[in-house]
Specification:
This protein is α/β, with parallel strands linked by helices and 533 residues long. It has 18 helices and 20 strands.
Length: 533
């Protein structure tokens, strides 16, 4: 299917038969895309489908090889982001590109500060202009306050305010809700509706299909750099949308759950020696003391709301942060883990949720990114040969279906899902015993998500232990043998994942232990799954 028949209104922006190649890789292949005034148009596709490349072409970051881009019906060729912005096209990315050490007003007006007669910044005029812009967005924010004092959600809205401050006609929102809770998403959608009513055309990129259907007027689906079709949300079932995105059905996700139910270390674990045991482990201001035992071949899911202490738990288990209380044993022997290097010596690896800032090195190749952990374990005075790196990369590129299958490709040019696969391969290369994964599927599509979940299941079946952190409760339930629940920086429940439901898990997160239960001081409460939870 191609493009829908749309009423006789002219598009603001149109891509016609656009193709882009990166070396041998075809990133976009004769893609059409149209954006009309006052609409929210969702751009959908799995990682590697071409969404980011399309946006880069539209904003002048990446030149096109074939086809053309029209603005108000006239061919254009932007030389860069600033050129596109001057034409009214702005982008707000998933990783907020603002300066937290500056004030709200300084961020909103950065590069466009009003000047006094002799060249100095007119601070009063800058604050007044920022107030005007915030009021247009119906945001009650002090323009003089430091940006760092505000939540991620507010910073996202400030980034949008900055984007629309230059008379934006096209606003591109790239995964704007990935770090927001439900109330914050509602506030963001309120602002989107205001902009839409003012005639702004909005490109909305998200992997949250519920949000796509709630906010979008039209959908364009890409797969493997090609246009699948343009659809109206009320005429396309969600299951059909997913199948168009990934080109296959969802049996893979059902298979993961069936394999989890049939595998794992079992229930009779009390007499077995855990691979890792954290006893009374805690850190002041981060997470209260908790007990956690991880057995060989077990996947433990960590569930809780944003700010519940999930990442703090992961950082203590892997030596990123030092504990103030408690101890860790590995195979029954007491071990100090004062640093990630010490944890790696015990073959405990941590994949951070912040893959862009704490994971990938964008200007290095896939080959070099993948080899980093193994090289560190060997020591920098024993450099790996190019041949060794190539063999390592080729092995993981094939086994994990990393795209493009070019070990020399720059990491920054890979999609989010493929970047995540490279990071997993980096840690697998050192043959860990325990892998702590913090939001490994956040911001990636359902196809790549299924690939990573299947990989984690395969690893567990081969004896690897996994601590799996995710904000998506369905994902936690699908992939875990056991679920540990956190709330307010405290471990409150340890749930066997037998017929455990999302409702039961939500009840555990919301209710927690009885008030008389001292569950946070070195222990946790076990709640039966099912209707009694």
């Amino acid at each position: 299917m191609g493009l829908l028949i749309v009423p006789s209104i002219a598009p603001i922006v149109e891509l016609q038969q656009v193709s882009i190649r990166f070396g041998r890789a075809q990133a976009l292949d004769n893609v059409d895309f149209r954006l009309f005034p006052g609409e929210v148009h969702a751009l959908i596709g799995e990682n590697g489908a071409g969404k980011s490349t399309l946006i880069k072409a539209l904003t002048g970051v990446t030149p096109i090889d074939d086809g053309r881009i029209l603005l108000d019906g006239h061919p254009v060729s932007f030389s860069g982001v600033a050129d596109a912005q001057s034409a009214g096209i702005s982008t707000v990315f998933q990783e907020i590109n603002l300066l937290p050490n500056l004030s709200v007003a300084e961020n909103v007006m950065l590069g466009r500060e009003p000047r006094r007669r002799f060249g100095g910044i007119d601070w009063r005029a800058m604050r007044a202009r920022t107030v005007e812009l915030l009021e247009l967005m119906r945001l009650d924010i002090d323009p003089s306050s430091p940006l760092a004092d505000h939540s991620t959600a507010v910073q996202q809205l400030i980034a949008i305010t900055r984007a629309v401050s230059v008379k934006t006609r096209v606003l591109i929102l790239d995964e704007p809700t990935s770090s927001l809770d439900n109330d914050e998403v509602t506030e963001l959608f309120r602002v989107i509706q205001l902009l839409k009513a003012d005639g702004v055309a909005i490109v909305f990129i998200s992997h949250f299909l519920d949000q796509v259907y709630e906010i979008s007027d039209r959908l364009t689906v890409l797969r493997e750099g090609r246009l699948v079709g343009e659809y109206l949300p009320n005429e396309l079932l969600r299951i059909d949308l997913v199948q168009k995105m990934i080109g296959k059905d969802l049996d893979a996700l059902d298979d993961i759950r069936q394999r989890i139910e049939a595998s794992g270390p079992g229930d009779a674990l009390d007499d077995e020696l855990p691979l890792l045991a954290a006893i009374g482990l805690g850190r002041d201001g981060a997470i209260e003391p908790f007990d956690l035992r991880v057995y060989e071949g077990e996947i433990i899911g960590i569930a809780g709301l944003l700010g519940s202490g999930r990442t703090e738990l992961a950082r203590l288990l892997t030596g990123v942060d030092r504990a103030d209380t408690g101890s860790i044993t590995v195979e029954g022997r007491s071990r100090r883990l004062p640093s990630p290097r010490a944890a790696l010596r015990r073959r405990i690896a941590y994949a951070s949720e912040n893959r862009r800032t704490e994971g990938i090195i964008g200007d290095l190749s896939v080959r070099d990114n993948l080899a980093l952990a193994l090289q560190a374990s060997l020591g920098w005075f024993r450099p790996m040969s190019r041949r060794h790196k190539d063999e390592l990369a080729a092995s993981y590129i094939q086994s994990m279906d990393i795209r493009p299958n070019d070990p020399g490709a720059l990491m920054k040019n890979l999609s989010g899902g493929n970047q995540q696969k490279v990071l997993l391969a980096r840690w697998l290369a050192i043959a860990p015993r325990l892998l702590v994964l913090d939001e490994p599927t956040r911001g990636i599509d359902i196809g790549a998500k299924a690939d990573i979940q299947k990989l984690v299941t395969d690893l567990a079946e081969n004896g690897l232990s996994v601590v799996f952190i995710s904000a998506e409760l369905e994902e936690v339930l699908r992939i875990s043998h056991r679920v540990t629940v956190l709330r307010d920086h405290r471990m409150i429940a340890d749930l066997p994942n037998h017929d455990l439901t999302v409702a039961a898990l939500l009840a555990a997160i919301a209710d927690g232990p009885d008030e008389g239960d001292p569950g946070g001081s070195g222990g946790s409460t076990t709640i039966e799954s099912g209707d009694n939870a």
